Amino acid sequence: MTQSSNDKVPEIKKKALFDAPIERVWKAVATSEGIEEWFMPNDFKPVEGYKFTIKSQFEDSPCQVVTVNKPYELSFTWGDRGWVVSFYLKEVENRKTEFTLVHSGWGQPEEVMSVTSKTQLDTRNTMNKGWEMIVHEKLRKAVEG
């Protein structure tokens, strides 16, 4: 399928089933210490409207909490590019947690991003691989021990 010039870059979506109770997964994704363990240093607080910073290898990114629905949903803006990162948690049988990450807000495929000097599509594809490893390895290790 070919993208037309009006198409936005598709969102990134990662799903995982963790052998951990929802409370443990929530603590990992909705506290500053938890997020730092599997993602990046930050000064996050789970308060809607709260402005915080994620310190990535490229830059310190300004972020803002959009949604807090403990322990089921958390979303925040990331940087000044229109990105939104959302975490969805669902308790399933035997105290396991279904976790879904959605990274949305991408622009036009050929639009060049200043932070990476790559196109939106190339940046999205690189980040898609990164999120795969982060969710399925780093976050899994953080919540399953």
Key features of this structure:
145 residues, alpha+beta, 6-stranded antiparallel sheet
Can you describe this structure?
The protein is α+β, with helices and mostly antiparallel strands. Helices cover 28% and strands 32% of the residues. It is built from three helices and six strands; from the N terminus they run E-H-H-E-E-E-E-E-H. It has a six-stranded antiparallel β-sheet, covered by helices on one side. The longest helix is centred in the last third of the chain and has 25 residues, at 120-144. Residues 1-5 have low confidence and may be disordered.
Q: What structural category characterises the helix and strand content?
A: alpha+beta
Ranges where pLDDT stays below 50 over 5 or more residues in a row are 1-5
Percent range of helical residues: 25-40%
What's the β-strand tally? 6
- Largest sheet data: 6 strands, antiparallel
Shape: globular
In whole angstroms, the N-to-C terminal distance is 40 Å
Output the number of helix runs. 3
Element order: H for helix, E for strand? EHHEEEEEH
Strand arrangement within the widest β-sheet reads 1-6-5-4-3-2
Q: What's the rounded overall pLDDT mean?
A: 93
This entry's quaternary arrangement is single chain
Residues in β-strands, percent: 25-35%
Summarize the structure.
With 145 residues, the chain is of the alpha+beta class. The chain has three helices and six strands. A six-stranded antiparallel sheet has the order 1-6-5-4-3-2, covered by helices on one side.
